[in-house]
Design brief:
The structure is a single chain. The protein is an alpha+beta fold and about 525 residues long. It is built from twelve helices and 30 strands. The strands form eight sheets. An eight-stranded antiparallel beta barrel has the order 5-6-7-8-9-10-11-12. Strands 13-15-18-17 form a four-stranded antiparallel sheet, with no helix packed on it. The chain has a four-stranded mixed sheet with strand order 14-20-19-16, with no helix packed on it. A hairpin with a 3-residue loop joins strand 8 and strand 9. Helix 3 packs across helix 4 and helix 7 crosses helix 11. It is globular and about 75 Å long. The two termini are about 25 Å apart.
Length: about 525
């Protein structure tokens, strides 16, 4: 209680006289100004912070847990909607760090050692970068860490020059992520509304492949939408999709619904011009089983989103190619050596043609065109499948299934590749041809003489889906270890003609992530 009082008092005393964002919501004022001072609409701390919806949720969650905030579910949602709208981020500020909101494994690149020392040892860089604060508020965030997370200093005990490093970090954060930015100014001045009606879908789902489709958006409230439509995978399988969405801050699409009757969730972010959503649609509760997707408003400018398949072998005859996009027409071109023989069907969002590829067609990417819509590096011609690779690699699974922890699976794909025009595999000239069928196995990665991880970590099915073992100590293992370890996942592809191509990827099977924060 004493700590809560101290922190509340510290927050209440912040930043009068600065340029800040006025709070105009009676709900926010009523809930927050019990502790936070209100100076003519400029509320301490709140007026000097902008952040993503999930970060505002985490802030309220922390206030409820530590400071005794009394708030209902509906009140919390109303506050998040207001704060995201008025103290949120611009799409251009979110885009470089959206991966953490989409729960996509990403190897972060952080070009500041002081930020690594102060922030990234405990959480992602993205969690820091998805905030904007005034110069006076960044130090208060550090003070909050010291009060709420007192082990912070001990965790960073090897940072000998603590005061200097913290000061340098706060200076760098103020420079990189100020409260007022050109992107935010542009967004608040324009903030285009998503078009109601048809949106074109283009995506890729590990374990199934590329897909296209269409969804229809209907606005049902100031921040709310419903949608329904169909996605069609490149193997011809069609699945109905529908759901309900909330659009936070005019850019952050958070939805729940069904795909082929199974529960899904969606995390998308709109572009600055309001014409495009990018993000993920994943199986609920398995965020790791996802489609990485783009949705473009059908009434926007002509463009090609995808070409399926994305590569054809020289000498191919009568192949069916599907072009997905907006503002398309039936005049399709796929570059030198590729002849369109027949237009099977054509609409402004999808054109299907059959093509022949010349035997002497050069290896490499082509410009794809459908009327005035065009795109580079969405279609290629290759000479042969030269090697395969396992993706993702490295990968990580997590045990679960006995308590609250949900097992974190891994869907592997075997991708066929061409070594490209230079004939050298493994460089930027290579062509990723697409997903191929393979025989899958889990193989020991020996790190000791008694290493038998492969017997315990889990199983992989014939489609490359790895399911980890149960959580907790295993009496069958030495020292009752958990079902964790590191192994190789191997794929073997039988190419036409009988040649065998193989590859392997690294998998770390580890314990559950018991604390799931809105922003990790």
């Amino acid at each position: 209680m004493a700590l809560a009082f101290m922190l509340a008092t510290a927050w209440a005393g912040s930043a009068f006289g600065e340029t800040g964002i006025p709070v105009t919501s009676e709900k926010v004022l009523n809930k927050c100004t019990v502790c936070h001072k209100n100076n003519m609409g400029l509320v301490s701390r709140i007026s000097y912070i902008r952040q993503a919806p999930e970060a505002w949720e985490e802030t309220l969650w922390r206030h409820k847990r530590i400071h005794g905030l009394s708030i209902t579910k509906d009140e919390k949602e109303a506050l998040i909607l207001y704060l995201s709208e008025n103290h949120g981020l611009a799409p251009a500020e979110v885009a470089p760090y959206a991966y953490t909101l989409e729960k996509r494994d990403t190897k972060e690149k952080v070009d500041s050692q002081v930020i690594i020392d102060m922030c990234v040892r405990c959480h992602s860089y993205a969690k820091t970068a998805l905030q904007r604060r005034s110069p006076e508020d960044w130090p208060k965030l550090a003070n909050m860490h010291s009060g709420v997370l007192p082990m912070w200093l001990y965790q960073l005990q090897d940072v000998l020059d603590w005061d200097d490093t913290l000061a340098a970090c706060l200076k760098e954060l103020s420079r990189r992520f100020p409260l007022e930015t050109p992107e935010w100014k542009q967004w608040t001045n324009t903030r285009p509304k998503p078009g109601v009606g048809k949106w074109v879908v283009s995506g890729y789902q590990a374990g199934k492949g590329a897909y296209g489709g269409e969804v229809a958006l209907k606005k049902t409230g100031d921040f709310f939408y419903t949608y329904h439509g169909t996605v069609e995978f490149e193997n011809g399988e069609k699945q109905p999709i529908e759901g309900k969405a909330t659009l936070y801050g005019g850019y952050a699409w958070r939805a729940s619904g069904t795909l082929a009757g199974k529960p899904i969730r969606e995390v998308f972010h709109i572009s600055m011009d309001g014409s495009t959503f990018t993000g993920v649609r994943f199986d609920d509760p398995h965020f790791e089983l996802r489609g990485i997707e783009t949705r473009a408003f059908s009434g926007s400018f002509p463009r090609i989103l995808s070409v399926m398949p994305k590569a054809l072998k020289a000498g191919t005859r009568g192949a069916t190619v599907t072009v997905v996009g907006t503002g398309l027409s039936k005049e399709v071109s796929l570059g030198d050596g590729v002849t369109v023989k027949k237009v099977v069907s054509a609409s402004p969002t999808k054109v299907v043609v059959t093509v022949d590829v010349s035997d002497k067609s050069a290896t490499g990417y082509r410009s794809a065109k459908a009327g005035s819509a065009a795109a580079d590096r969405l279609f290629a011609v290759y000479a042969s499948v030269d090697y395969i690779k396992v993706v993702p690699s490295p990968a990580m699974s997590r045990t679960g299934g006995l308590g609250y922890a949900v097992k974190q699976l891994v869907q592997f794909d075997a991708m066929a590749c061409s070594k490209g025009a230079d004939g050298v595999p493994g460089n930027a000239d290579d062509i990723e041809i697409g997903r191929i069928p393979a025989d899958w196995n889990v193989v020991e990665l020996a790190s000791s003489n008694e290493d038998h991880d492969v017997d315990f970590v889990g199983k992989i099915d014939k489609n490359g889906l790895f399911t980890p073992g149960d959580e907790g100590p295993n009496p069958k293992r030495a020292m009752q270890e958990n079902n964790m370890g590191d192994v190789w996942v191997t794929a073997e592809y039988s190419a036409p003609g009988g040649e065998k191509l193989s590859a392997r990827g690294y998998l770390l099977a580890t314990i559950p992530l018991y604390v799931q924060r809105p922003v990790q």
